[in-house]
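A reminder from the course coordinator: this example appears on the midterm review sheet, so study it carefully.

Given structure:
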């Protein structure tokens, strides 16, 4: 059994997918994964495909060091953005896996929403690079673990025809209580 970070409240109406030790930069993957949280699964897959065509952008909100500003990021109420190709392709394949997991569980994929995303740092890959004068320096890679959680949203409940009473301020409510209680106003 594979270990996940969290258990869903309703396992029959949810699905999950994960990848461990992904060879893609942690910071790019973090922003890429967080960009689709709350979206419907098919909309998220379409969004990643648009990012690969550079018709959409991944907004960078947390890891901003050296990230250039771009006009496309204004759609997300942000100024920083990039098109991290490697992270997007890996996340796209993970989302397709998540979609197939949902279909195999018998969920209605048109109503499935990505409810949670977990991106964690993994152990760094260690290589070496050879420098001048016979020195050797480390050549590390920032790998990551990624988990997607999806749940099928229930049909919305319609409101009843009952009208909600007029809201009163504290003062108005106190005056009304005094008038009902028989006090003088």
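Designed residues:
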């Amino acid at each position: 059994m594979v270990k996940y970070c969290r258990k869903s409240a309703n396992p029959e109406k949810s699905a999950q997918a994960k990848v461990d030790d992904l060879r893609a930069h942690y910071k790019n993957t973090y922003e890429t994964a967080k960009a689709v949280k709350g979206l419907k699964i098919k909309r998220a897959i379409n969004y990643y495909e648009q990012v690969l065509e550079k018709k959409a952008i991944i907004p960078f909100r947390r890891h901003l060091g050296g990230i250039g500003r771009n006009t496309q990021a204004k759609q997300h109420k942000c100024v920083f953005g990039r098109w991290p190709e490697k992270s997007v392709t890996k996340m796209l394949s993970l989302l397709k896996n998540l979609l197939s997991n949902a279909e195999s569980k018998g969920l209605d994929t048109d109503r499935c929403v990505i409810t949670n995303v977990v991106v964690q740092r993994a152990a760094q890959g260690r290589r070496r690079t050879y420098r001048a004068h016979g020195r050797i320096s480390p050549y590390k890679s920032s790998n990551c673990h990624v988990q997607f959680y999806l749940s099928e949203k229930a049909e919305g409940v319609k409101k009843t025809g009952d009208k909600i009473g007029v809201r009163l301020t504290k003062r108005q409510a106190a005056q009304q209580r005094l008038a009902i209680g028989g006090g003088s106003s």
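The mean pLDDT is 91. The longest helix spans residues 85-104.
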